[in-house]
Design brief:
single chain; alpha/beta; 6-stranded parallel β-sheet; 24 helices; 10% strand
Amino acid sequence: DIIARFKRTGRPMTELDQMAAIQLNDTHPTLGIPELMRILIDEEGLTWDEAWSTTIKTFAFTNHTVLPEAMEKWPVPMLDKILPRHVGIIYDINLFFLQSVEKAFPGDRELLRNISIIEESSPQQVRMAYLACVGSHRVNGVAAIHSDIIKQSIFRDFVRIQGEDKFINKTNGVAPRRWMNECNPDMSELITEAVGDRSWVTDLTKLSTLEARATDPDFRQRWWAAKQKNKQRLADYILATTGIQVSADAMFDVQVKRIHEYKRQLMNILAVIYRYHCLKQMTPAQRTKELPRVVIFAGKAAAGYWVAKQVIKLINSVAEVINSDEEIGDILKVVFIPDYSVTAAENIIPASDISQHISTAGTEASGTSNMKFVLNGGIILGTVDGANIEIGEEVGEEQIFFFGCLAHEVADFRHYLRFHQPKPDAALQAAFDMIQANTFGDAHLFQPLIDAVLRGGDVYLLSVDFPSYIEAHKAVEAAYRQHDEWITKSILSVARMAKFSSDRSIQEYAEEVWNIEPAPVSGQSV
C-alpha cells in the first residue's frame, strides 16, 4: 500500500511524489486519481490545492491506443451509485479545470465542451482519458508515430492548453531475458559467442558485434541451423496441439496478435485464400516450383467480439480445406494455434521466418510482438505503422517489407469508401468468390465479413491495401529464395535491435517521467 509505506517515512503527504510514482497504464486505472484525492483530503486533511498539486505530480499517463472502445467512458449514474464521493471529486476536478481554461481562453465555449471531463450526453459520461490527462504531469504514447497522432487528434486541445512539453514519446521495449535468452537458447549461445560473454543480456547495445559475424560462413551456417531447430520445435508443438503436420523446411509465415479488425487477420486469411486459388489453377508440375509456406495464426478475441470470432471461424474453415487437399500437400498449410499464451509465444516467436504486423496505418499504437520477432531473427512484413517504423529506421528498410497506405492518407480513403463502392481488384475478388462458392463451408456465415469490406465502408481499408499486400508477399518469397541474403537480413536485424530493449524504455521513464535514480545491486547475475 503506497500511502501506508509512505507514512512510515514520517514525511508530509505533500512530498508523496518524491517517494512514489504512479503510472496509469491506459485508462483502466484512472479512478486512482480521484481515489488519491479522496485519501489526501478526507483522511489526511490536506487542502484541495495541496492534494491536487500532489496528485498531479504523482501520476503520469501512458496512452496505448486511439481506438474508441479503449477510450473508456463511464456513465455518471452508474458511477455515482457505486462511488458517490469519487464522482463528487471528479466534478470538482472538472469544474476547476474548466475555470482555468475559461480564464486563459475566454468565451471559447466549444473548447470547454470539447475538453470537459464530463461529456454532456444522455446519460452524462466520465471521459476517463481526459481525467487521466488532466490529473497527470506527463502523458506519453508508445511509439513515435502514435505519440504524434494523439497530439494531433484525441489530445489536440489539451496540447494547446497545457503545452506540448507535457506530451512525450516513450517507445515500448521487450525483455531480452525472456524474449531471447530464455526462449531461444541456441541463438542466444551464438550471440554470447559473438559478444564474448553474456553481458548482452542486460546491455542489448552489444548486439552490434553480430554485424562483424554476418559474413562468417561458419557462423551463418550455425545461425541458420538454430533457426531451423526452432522451426522444428514449433512443428512438433503444432502437431501436439492441433494434430496438423507441417514441414520445418517450409517458410514459416506468422501472425500472432489479439484478434481485431484493425490488426487485419481477415486480410491475411483472404491472401491465403487467394494463394490457394492460384495453386489450384496450376498444373502439378507448376506447383512443384512454388515455395512451400506454413501460415500460422494465434491470438485471442474478446468474449463478445462477434466479428473477431467470425474471423477465427473463417481461418479454421480455410485451414481444414487446404490442409486436407492432397493436390496441395505441403506447398501450403494453414494453422490456428489455440489457447495463445506466453508458453505458446515462446515456441512460436523464435521459429518465424516472416512475421506479419499489418494494422491499418495509424491504428497500432506500437506493438511489441514485432520487436520480439525481429530480436529472434525473423523478418517483418508490415504496414508503415506503430513501432514498425522505428524498427525499419534501426535495422534498415532493406531488412523489412513495407506495404500499404500511410497514416495521413487513411482519412481520405475512408471518406471516399464511405460514399463509393469501387470494384475490388481481381485478387481480392477471387478470394471472395471462393468463399461465396461455399468452398470453406456455408458462405452465409462469412458474408458479413465480405459485406464489411464491399458495402460497409471498409473502415480498415482492406480493399485499398490488398494489392500492395499481395505484391509484398511476392517480394518476401523472392527474397527467401535468396538463401544467403536472407541469412544476412536475419543477422543484421538482430544486431540492430538494441533500441527495443525494455531496459532502455524503463530507463527513459525513470529519467524523464518518474525522476528516480538507479540503485546499485550487489551480486547481479543473469
